[in-house]
Design a protein that fits this description.
- This is Zinc ribbon domain-containing protein.
- InterPro entries: DUF7575 (IPR055997).
- Keywords: Membrane, Transmembrane, Transmembrane helix.
- Pfam families: DUF7575 (PF24460).
- By secondary structure, the chain is mainly alpha-helical.
- Helices cover 60% and strands 0% of the residues.
- α1 runs antiparallel to α6 and α3 runs antiparallel to α6.
- The longest helix has 22 residues.
- The protein is elongated, with a radius of gyration of 23 Å.
């Protein structure tokens, strides 16, 4: 399911940068990528008046392809590609600069992010969590301690 989510996030980011981040509920990055993309569109593409003055859709596409320069194509392609890669990695739970050892509390078995003790579901990926019985937790910690003591 995580791979499917990552592919969906990357695909949405190719269609519209920021949409993949919105899918994985990373709202700040969604706004940043969408803002970057729309700013680049305003800067590098011809004005709306020029495009709407043309008679057909084919002629407007020809106008856009003639007016955009190599630098504009590169910037737009880079933003789309970077947004797709970033959203896919974030959907897989691989944010840069973090490690699994930094989590102090319990982590979600599905996405690996830190959980809130009061909730019965993961607020990141909405996976329902089964309550841990105190006897099971004691047995698991006892088994782990016994394994550490054996040579």
């Amino acid at each position: 399911m995580t791979w499917l989510r990552a592919l969906a996030a990357a695909g949405l980011s190719v269609l519209l940068p920021g949409a993949g981040h919105a899918l994985i509920r990373d709202w700040l990055r969604a706004l940043v990528f969408a803002g970057l993309y729309f700013s680049a569109v305003v800067i590098f593409l011809p004005s709306v008046d020029q495009v709407t003055a043309v008679n057909s859709v084919g002629d407007s596409l020809d106008l856009v392809s003639e007016e955009i320069d190599t630098m504009g194509q590169f910037v737009l392609s880079f933003i789309v590609l970077f947004a797709a890669i970033d959203s896919a990695f974030r959907a897989l739970g691989i944010p840069p600069g973090s490690s699994d050892e930094s989590a102090d509390g319990p982590t979600c078995p599905e996405c690996g992010k830190e959980l809130d003790d009061d909730l019965t579901f993961c607020h990141w990926c909405t996976t329902r969590l089964e309550p841990v019985e105190p006897d099971e937790a004691d047995e698991e910690s006892t088994d782990a301690q016994a394994a550490e003591l054996k040579p």
